[in-house]
Amino acid sequence: MSSEYNVGDLIAEFLAHCGISTAVGVVSIHNIPMLDGIGRRNAIRFVMARGELGGGHMADGYARVTGKLGAFFSSTGPGAANAVGSLVEARFAATPMLHLTGQTATKFADRGVGTVHDAYDQLTMLDSVSKSAYRIRSADQALGVLTRAAVDALTPPMGPVSVEVPIDIQRTPIARPSFDSFSLPVPAPLAPSEAALDELAARVAKAKRPMLWLGAGARHAGGPAARLLDMGFGMVTSLQGRGSVSEDHPLNLGGFNGNGQPRVEELYRSVDLMLIVGSRLRGHETGDFSIKFPEELVQIDADPLANGRTYPNKFFVCGDARLVLEGLVKRLQGKAHVDPAFTSEVRGLKEKIRAKYAESLGPYGSFAEQLRKVMPRDALWVRDVTISNTTWGLGCSRCIRRRPTSIRWGRGSGRACRSASAPHSAPTGGKSW
Known about the structure:
Layout: H1 7-17, E1 22-25, H2 32-41, E2 45-48, H3 52-66, E3 70-74, H4 78-82, H5 84-92, E4 97-103, H6 122-129, E5 132-135, H7 142-154, E6 160-166, H8 167-170, H9 194-205, E7 210-214, H10 222-230, E8 234-237, H11 262-270, E9 273-277, E10 297-301, E11 315-318, H12 321-332, H13 340-360, H14 367-374, E12 382-383, H15 387-394, E13 415-416
Helix pairs in contact: 1-2, 1-7, 3-5, 9-12, 10-12
């Protein structure tokens, strides 16, 4: 093994300086120099996956739970193609993840000459399923490309970013850069304008029956959202937004957001303002956009492209969910006048929905309570797909509390929640490991 510092070593140091302590992947002839760099430093735990698809899901799940950038290594060609499903899932869930894959030697890339693991237009394939995709074309630009890729992954709307590193470039000796003052130039959370906050507060203050819908983009906005609930607001979440506010709050209906819930849809008809925060209102949760929302629909999102993407709105605030809700709470102090009857109605509806759901489970109706009693509050609920997914993972909102602070790695295939810390809490797209 060469003692010279090379691009593989640079990648290992870069990941460590990004705060990554665990990486996942499959060892291949086309990524060994990068993994050797990790091994020589012993600063990052490398977890072997059985295949690229599972490895991508593992990195996705780790990023969701820790709130950090996920790191995933695959081989090139068929190995990179095997990772496509996990990249699509991570992109759909807005998970920040760095996918590092090999590429055939630079002089043979994109020529279709049949070198080992050669793939036709691999970069375009990865670009189509990732938020963005890059190739490091020279050793000198390695740090710049890696920095750009990590910033892309961590900038809302977040997502997985793929980086191809040709095998000859991985081995190329370079001078070790100084990381003493290195930090990722990730943009600060987008602050809303004061004028937009004033207009938002004026609209919300008029509402007597206001409701929140929180999505994945509001996962970090649970504090100010809970303060709105304390003012009497009702609340639902997308499946990805679950756990933003503890679901033992009596005004949080959680994932019972209307799709297949006639009583919730009926409630929407009486709501005079709906705040959509960090959510796409995707078809899967709106009956393919058939659910009728209140006419006074206000949308909050850090992505300007979210404005009216699925449902028309009366007002749009472009900004970070937490900053917008904090500004709203500050302006609503003493000015919100929610109808107490509405608050009581939401409380009662939650109990009725939960009871109805438990009744539909027959002899398994008490399963949630039994499991809740023996599980610690910060437990991770891991589930497989099909029945355990739709029944216990998505439909049951009995025990979801707060986001976990750690992750446990286990054997087998299952699904784990990023945003929940107790049984029956995994949102759609919880990952396997």
